[in-house]
Amino acid sequence: MSKKLETMTPELRAFIEEWKAKPGNLIMVLHRVQQTYGYIPREIAIETSKILDVPLAKIYGVITFYNFFRLQKAGKYNVQVCLGTACYLRGGDDIIKEFERQLGVGLNATTDDGMFSVEAVRCLGCCGLAPVAVINGEVHGKLSSKDVTGIIKQYRDRG
Amino acid sequence: MAYESYVLVCGGTACCSGGGTTVVEAFKKELEAAGLKDKVQVVVTGCLGFCEQGPIVKILPQGTFYVQVKAEDVKEIVAEHLVKGRVVQRLCYDPEQAKKLVAEANIPFYQKQYRIVLRNCGIIDPEKIEDYIARDGYKAIEKVLFEMTPEQVVEEILKSGLRGRGGAGFPTGMKWKFAQQQPKGQKYMVCNADEGDPGAYMDRSTLEGDPHSILEAMTIAGYAIGASKGFIYIRAEYPLAIERLQIAIKQAHELGLLGDDILGSGFSFDIELRFGAGAFVCGEETALLQSIEGNRGMPKPRPPFPAVKGLWGRPTVINNVETLANIPVIINKGADWFNKIGTATTKGTKVFALTGKVNNSGLIEVPMGTTLREIIFDIGGGIRGGHQFKAAQTGGPSGGIIPPQFLDTPIDYESLAKIGSIMGSGGLIVMDETDCVVDIAKFYLDFTVDESCGKCAPCRIGGRKLLNYLNKITDGRGTEDDIKQLEAISDAMCKASLCGLGQTASNPVKSTLKYFMDEYMEHIKDKKCRAGKCSKLIQYKIDPAKCKGCTMCARKCPAAAISGTVKQPHAIDQTKCIKCGQCEQTCKFGAISHG
Amino acid sequence: MAKLTLEDLRRLRGEKQKAMEMRDASNKDVQVIVGMGTCGIAAGAKDTFTALVNAISDKGLTNVLIRQTGCMGLCHSEPTVEVVVPGMPTVIYGNVDAATAKDVVEKHIVGHQLIDDKILDRPSIDIVKEA
């Protein structure tokens, strides 16, 4: 499958130029890259390396060190299941397994149709609603494995 | 038509089971009889806390607080209090209160919480600087800039006894003093808002609810140590907190409370945000500085301490959000006010994110020295679903598990360390008998193994080995020798790891071994998990007396582990069973159970 | 009404504030304060906020100021709403969904009655006002 190459947007380029002179800019720049594309495309990483005059190896060193940065595009609907302690105690891992089973994908992978990806995340901070899943910013709280089918359908229906 | 008084009857679970419902009925009847039906409204409330003293009745507007009220007492309350306006002394929690009818705001004693850090959370609009200013906001900065020398500021903080709330409890004033004593030149003030502990969200709530208090505190710290630049290192996973901080910084700039020549004092200070990217180890000071510098967040050996050689090699003070939120209050109310709160060694309050198997999970702030029992049973409303308290966990992946015999230990840094846990950043997770301690230890180890930066071997290899042994035990393959290995590795990690993450990573294992050895032995010898959490140790059984021989379970079983003839009791072949639990869900007769 | 994003909400609030002269708190004697931390929003505080705004405009009330605040710490009962009506005790309601929000306006603000089963205690005294 050939992949569409991303090109650097003028806004992103301006942002990187603006931060270029500031010490310790790399992580802030990578955040902006991810915000723009939803992940950090290789071609953009290469270009960033050139503009900032930072070795590509260092950029990938940073990207792979931090959980937040992703190297693959997430699904249209990114299912983030909380595995903070409160959610774990109340069955968060069962929720993940159920999403994985029903969607037929493993953790941090995207379904073939590009619709869903499943991610385990650290405390989302709504422990009062545990266990919690967040899908594109919408919070689903007090979940049980039985709710998973309905949630998937709800997003599939939206297309 | 307006009511003159309101009778609030607690409708929380504990109060209801203690007779709260009949109290409501009694009030309605007695008020009708006294002709007060239209003047007094009876209201059932949500849980008011203080559940041990339930049923709780509160009379508004006076705010009189009656405890252990029974239906028989209602007649007296109506006749005395509501008709004659006299407090029924024998039902009051505190006899002092009984002397007079006082305004609600003046009766603090039944409230276990005391909010210094969270003073504005839930009160002000966090996006309005005027709201903060109206509540003594930026008053401390006025005092500091115009009435105090940097030395006096440091002295005041030292005198207050404030210790770092990030976990280790280092005296904040000392940190400031070290940095202050460094030669003049570029210094930095950093706020650690990289709250990565799973199950903790104190700092996020503070930043979201009261962002200006952090800006003010950082400016005060900057003045004290001689820094002109501050960074807030905040988790990228906290978009709302980031947004509110950005708004706050902009507003403070517009009003000249940040930037050049603050309030015309000649002191300049600016704050920038730097985003974390999901690395727990970046909560460690030296790793955090690495991350701000744009590198992989790997810790460095200390000394040199950041106060001497920190960000870009310059003296740097790093304080956590909760620590900083105390600063303006200490300046405004004085160190002597602050150091009267708390215990001998630990002053002030602590914010906890109280979660897990507790009825009222939430964000609470209590004076140091409060006991776990007060937190879990009075504020938290006890254990959910009528279960038993098994243990509490503080300090997240670096902390330990606290068994029931220590429920009455007053909480401070020293007492928690003594019983094998740590204060930590403030996650307080409550567990009941359906939670398996070995599984919990595994959960935390899994976390630290994932988060270990890999720089030093004790943490990188030791953590993995610990996790392997724990997996072996929960899979039913454990031996008694494994316990010895767990102990030895834990010890080695404590002594030899480079940073706090590795040094404390074995705490969950050590404390569970210490207090719940019997459960480890059950897993190893009896191949049994009493909580039913460790799925590989679960055995599904068919009760022959209840089984009707419908064959449903045998047809559902994906491993073909169930056999039997129609209308005859079936049986499960344990060697084939994969413990998926589908048979139990399928059985219509409740004949299949696990244990 | 479709679900609001935070931006929609702010715009809406700005418009409503102007339209209903809500900018000036001095002639608004009734205050409704909604807890809008991450936890509150996750539990549906935006819907609550919208429902309150709608109910207030349906009733034609002009003396009510709606404000947002951060987390009160009562995560078990989010969303929380504090209601301040002159002559009545100030109360905090928990678990305020859209239906309860309507009750808050109709029963509490208009009818001067407290609502059953939802009242929570303020978790602590206010140290800023403490002597």
What would your notes on this structure say?
The complex is a heterotrimer of chains A (159), B (595) and C (131). Chain A contains 7 helices and 5 strands, in the order H-H-H-H-E-H-H-E-E-E-E-H. Chain A is α+β, with helices and mostly antiparallel strands and 159 residues long. Chain A folds into 2 domains: 10-65, no CATH class; 77-158, Glutaredoxin (3-Layer(aba) Sandwich). Chain B has 5 domains: 5-106, Glutaredoxin, CATH 3.40.30; 129-336, NADH-ubiquinone oxidoreductase 51kDa subunit (Rossmann fold); 349-432, Ubiquitin-like (UB roll); 437-526, de novo design (two linked rop proteins) (Up-down Bundle); 538-594, Alpha-Beta Plaits, CATH 3.30.70. A 5-stranded mixed sheet of chain B has the order 11-10-14-12-13, sandwiched between helices. Chain B is 39% helix and 14% strand. Chain B is flat, with a radius of gyration of 28 Å. By secondary structure, chain B is α/β, with parallel strands linked by helices. Chain C is α+β, with helices and mostly antiparallel strands and 131 residues long. Chain C has 4 helices and 6 strands, in the order αβααβββαββ. Chain C starts with 5 loop residues before the first helix and ends in a 5-residue tail after the last strand. Classes of the chains: A alpha+beta (159), B alpha/beta (595), C alpha+beta (131). Chains in contact: A-B, A-C, B-C. At the B-C interface, strand 2, strand 5, helix 8 and strand 11 of B face helix 2, strand 2, strand 5 and strand 6 of C.
Strand and helix layout:
The complex is a heterotrimer of chains A (159), B (595) and C (131).
Chain A: H1 10-20, H2 26-37, H3 42-52, H4 56-65, E1 77-82, H5 85-89, H6 92-103, E2 109-110, E3 116-121, E4 133-135, E5 138-140, H7 148-158
Parallel strand pairs in A: 1-3
Antiparallel strand pairs in A: 1-4, 2-3, 4-5
Chain B: E1 5-10, H1 13-33, E2 40-45, E3 57-60, E4 64-66, H2 74-83, H3 95-98, E5 113-115, H4 129-134, H5 139-147, H6 150-160, H7 172-181, E6 188-193, H8 202-209, H9 211-225, E7 229-234, H10 239-254, E8 270-275, H11 285-292, E9 316-320, H12 321-333, H13 335-338, E10 349-356, E11 362-367, H14 372-379, E12 389-394, E13 400-402, H15 413-418, E14 427-432, H16 437-451, H17 457-474, H18 480-496, H19 500-504, H20 507-515, H21 517-526, E15 540-542, H22 552-556, E16 562-563, E17 571-572, H23 582-586, E18 592-594
Parallel strand pairs in B: 1-2, 6-7, 6-9, 7-8, 10-14
Antiparallel strand pairs in B: 1-3, 3-4, 10-11, 12-13, 12-14, 15-18, 16-17
Chain C: H1 6-19, E1 30-35, H2 38-42, H3 45-58, E2 64-69, E3 81-84, E4 91-93, H4 98-110, E5 119-120, E6 124-126
Parallel strand pairs in C: 1-2
Antiparallel strand pairs in C: 1-3, 3-4, 4-5
